[in-house]
Amino acid sequence: MEISIVGITRILNPTSIDLGEYVINPYKGCEFSCLYCYARYNKSVQKDKRPWGTYVDVRINSPQLLEKELFIRKPKKVLLGSITECFQPVEKEYQVTKRILEILNLGKIHYSILTRSPIIAEYLDLLKEGFCDSIYFTVNNYNEKLKKLLEPKSPSFEERKQAILALSKSGINVIPYFSPLLPFVSDIKEAFRDFKEFKEIDFEGLNFNLGNIRKITEIIGSVYPELKPKYNKLPDDPVFYNKTWKTIKDEIELHAKQYRIRYDIYLHGLKDYFSNKYSK
Length: 280
Ligand code: SF4
Fold this sequence. Notes:
Residues 276-280 have low confidence and may be disordered. The protein has eleven helices and eleven strands. Helix 8 (188-194) links the parallel strand 9 (174-181) and strand 10 (200-205). The chain has one domain: TIM Barrel, CATH 3.20.20. The longest helix has 22 residues, at 238-259. Helix 2 runs parallel beside helix 4 (96-106), helix 6 packs antiparallel against helix 9 and helix 8 runs parallel beside helix 11 (238-259). By secondary structure, it is of the alpha/beta class. The protein is globular, with a radius of gyration of 19 Å. Strands 2-3-6-7-8-9-10-11 form an eight-stranded mixed sheet, with helices on one face. The chain has a three-stranded mixed sheet with strand order 1-5-4, with no helix packed on it. The termini are far apart. The structure holds iron/sulfur cluster (SF4). The site of iron/sulfur cluster (SF4) has 10 residues, from loops.
């Protein structure tokens, strides 16, 4: 992993994601290197010659910039981690995200966080200061073999589950975020069973518009050969595609009713790449 210390000129970036007025990404790049990561298709990431998952730029002056920009822009709410993982292992050494949380708390700025890293639980004291509105904690439940191929460097699902439970027990608003939901693979029943005490569980379907979707579907087919024909058909057959997601949606609705848990599902239509909508 190539770790570089870099300076940037701006840390608050306006966003259409409905979880904040601005996004904060204290790192560029990500050690976890998930194959289905959207950040791979971000413009500035695409311009970079280095392959995604092989580098992390530590935006070392982010805290100083944030102090200045908060004073000028006065946001009410921001979102952390839209195209990076704020709590990836490199954070343990540089603590840029930690400093950002301290500044946001001090300025009484509310924030939401997108993460899949249990390292976030080490900042419990900061998160409990009252300005962390929600943590969307990505988790999943496909088998180890598939995980190794799709996201070999990310924390295990069990570690994530334990972190979600621990944060929630401490009074933090954590929403287990099942993503990417894989048709015929993801165990929806288990998702509800694992988080039956939660008020809300959210789901996001695999985005079949990703540039590397054929590689992803090939990998799924290599782990589940019986699903190969279905995964070959999904990106090419809109009727089958829509029917498949409708069945998944119905199953989620059924379990949500049974467990009396709120839910949100984000599904990507074919050719509808990403609409930046997370909440209802
Ligand atoms: S952890 Fe998030 S930012 Fe990092 S590679 Fe995975 S999806 Fe992308």
